[in-house]
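[Meeting: bench + compute handoff]

Bench side (C.D.) handed over the final construct sequence. Compute side (W.E.) agreed to return the predicted structure before the next meeting so the bench team could plan truncations. Sequence as handed over:
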Amino acid sequence: MLLALGFFVAGFLLLPLLEEDNRPAVSLERIKLPRPQPVKDFSLDAIDGNVNSGAYTRDRLLNQWTLMYFGYTHCPDVCQPTLAVMAEIARRLRAAPHWTAKLELVFVSVDPSRDTPTVLRDYLDAAEANVVGLRGSEKQIAILAQQVGIMYLAGPANQQGGYLIDHPATILLIDPSAELRAGFAFPRDAARVAEVVSEIAQEFEAEQEG
């Protein structure tokens, strides 16, 4: 069941937020899940300026909005630009007069063998995006990744031992009830993403009041 859900959610979240530059943005319904997907228990190590700040569990997701991205520090292309987009989304939301909720940015490493605590901390510090890094064993990472429909696969190693990891360039949006609400693939327009996140947040607040 988890595998089937993973394929469904991953396929759904791979829809781009924007089409080609001369086409309009896709509708809100195209990037929202048909229904929120609960995130259940998991535990990973949180990496911050002190290298290791303890366990990051499902409880951390409660009472805040979370933008989460799965990537790795040796990523040659999409990971750094995505972190920059996440930072810009957060900046725009926090500057909006109607946005009062807590928002956290999270980068989950899918390469635990190379992304040591120090490597991950230095990578995120260089990004200057104020992102919490998460790492753990292959099993720990899979527990969270499967729940949110993220699939990744390491390629063959070259003669120097290096390798690439195929993974979706998707930013996930998790609500204050620890439920996955939406995904933004290849986000080219931080302003539009911020608008959509704000719309989803307003829907969430209406649901809570109702």
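W.E. noted at the follow-up: The CA atoms of residues 174 and 180 lie 4 Å apart. C.D. will use this when planning the next construct.
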